[in-house]
Design goal:
Order of helices and strands: EHHEHEHEHEHEEEHHHHEEHEEH
Number of strands: 12
Structural class: alpha/beta
Radius of gyration: 21 Å
Distance between the termini: 44 Å
Bound molecules: 4'-deoxy-4'-aminopyridoxal-5'-phosphate
Number of helices: 12
Cofactor: pyridoxal 5'-phosphate
Oligomer: single chain
InterPro entries: Aminotrans_II_pyridoxalP_BS (IPR001917), Aminotransferase_I/II_large (IPR004839), HisP_aminotrans (IPR005861), PyrdxlP-dep_Trfase (IPR015424), PyrdxlP-dep_Trfase_major (IPR015421), PyrdxlP-dep_Trfase_small (IPR015422)
GO molecular function: histidinol-phosphate transaminase activity; pyridoxal phosphate binding
EC number: 2.6.1.9
Protein name: Histidinol-phosphate aminotransferase
Strand order of the largest sheet: 2-8-7-6-5-3-4
Shape: globular
Length: 369
């Protein structure tokens, strides 16, 4: 018996447009092999753990004061990392940071979306894009990918020109399907877009394709590139997302961000993690190699993996994907049912975890494939 437990959701004076909606819900289950939320499977190296600990200890003495509201030093560090990674010289004025890229995306929708505005995405794609749109009362426009989940560039640009969304989401590499956008296709979408184009590059470090950051100079009032430290940086628990754009975009975000949204602790921990970027990002190649091994293993077992340049693979085909997901769980392997018919998504884990996954795949393929 919980205090207040008699009041149900239906009893609340909820906004009508939120009634009947479902929250984001990747299951958090304690299973030996967890390959369901696209984290880096390698824990942070001891030097990073020590640096975070020392840095947080230092700032703890000033916890009675609010943090730097603009997270200037952290943004300088992020700009330096992006400059090195993309070859485009960026400064703190080009970079914004928040608690995970989900918060970055929400702030962008607060600024560029909202009532009477629309956001368009090419689905299947990241499920939070429509959820964040709903939360900010931005009407969601769904545009389909091809049957093989690739993006039809000319058709995408045509849809953008015709439907004139205020916000376009291009996820590259795309979650949950794995492929990156072709640079020519992205350019066509940018040229067609009447509003802003958010390229969600949460998994870009795993891809050999160039970052959209190289196009910011050409499309300063349209292009916003969103990134995160949750994946390749092995910092999902630290909650640090960021973006690169023209300085005017950052000025716009100041209008909606909560003051002091990035805690003293988050800023210090993220800066420490960035100092060890070389080591954490060293796992990227190993994970890409493991991805190719998992893809081969799935093919050998008769499955159909979708080509991926991220740290996960969508694969099928299952007559009943949800039952197959349950069978993997019976084998102590938690993967993801993204709701795509006949398909499941597996995050690339450590070599040992991938072995357990492939062994489980033997069983699943025998029983129900
Ligand atoms: N974008 C994409 C495409 C994602 O897959 C994710 C994580 N699942 C995010 C953004 C958000 O990640 P975070 O808030 O941890 O940065």
């Amino acid at each position: 018996d919980v205090i207040g437990g008699d009041a149900t959701l239906a009893d609340l004076p909820l906004r009508e447009d939120l009634r009947g909606r479902s929250p984001y819900g990747a299951p958090q289950i304690d299973v030996p092999v967890r390959l369901n939320t696209n984290e880096n499977p390698f824990p942070p190296p001891q030097e990073l753990v020590d640096d975070v600990t020392t840095s947080v200890r230092e700032v703890a003495a000033s916890l009675h004061r609010y943090p730097d509201r603009d997270a200037t030093v952290l943004r300088e560090d992020l700009a330096a990392y992006l400059t090195g990674a993309t070859g485009v010289t960026l400064s703190a004025a080009n970079v914004w940071a928040a608690n995970g890229s989900n918060e970055v995306l929400q702030q962008l929708l607060q600024v560029f979306g909202g009532p009477d505005r629309t956001a368009l995405g090419f689905e299947p794609s990241y499920s939070m894009h429509p959820i964040l749109s709903a939360g900010t009362r931005t009407e969601w426009l769904s545009s389909p990918r091809r049957a093989d989940f690739s993006l039809d560039g000319p058709e995408a640009a045509r849809q953008v020109a015709e439907r004139r969304p205020d916000v376009v989401f291009v996820t590259s590499p795309n979650n949950p399907t794995g492929q990156s956008v072709d640079p020519g296709d992205l350019r066509a979408i940018l040229e067609a877009a009447p509003g802003v184009v958010i390229v969600d590059e949460a998994y870009v470090e795993f891809s050999a394709r160039p970052s959209a950051v190289t196009l910011i100079e050409e499309f300063p009032n349209k292009l916003i590139v969103s990134r995160t430290m949750s994946k390749a940086f092995a910092f999902a628990g630290g909650r640090l997302g960021y973006l690169a754009a023209a300085p005017a975009v950052i000025e716009a975000l100041l209008l909606v961000r909560l003051p002091y949204h990035l805690s003293v602790i988050t800023q210090a921990a993220a800066r420490a993690a960035l100092r060890h970027a070389k080591t954490t990002l060293g796992s990227v190649q190993a994970l890409a190699d493991e991805r190719e091994r998992v893809v081969r293993g799935l093919r050998e077992r008769g499955f159909t993996p979708v080509p991926s340049d991220a740290n996960f693979v969508l694969f099928g085909r299952f007559a009943d994907a949800h039952r197959a997901w349950e069978r993997y769980l019976d084998c102590d392997v938690l993967i993801r049912d993204s709701g795509i018919a006949e398909h499941l998504r597996v995050t690339i884990g450590t070599p040992e975890e991938n072995d357990v996954f492939l062994t489980a795949s033997d069983q699943v393929s025998e029983e129900i494939y």
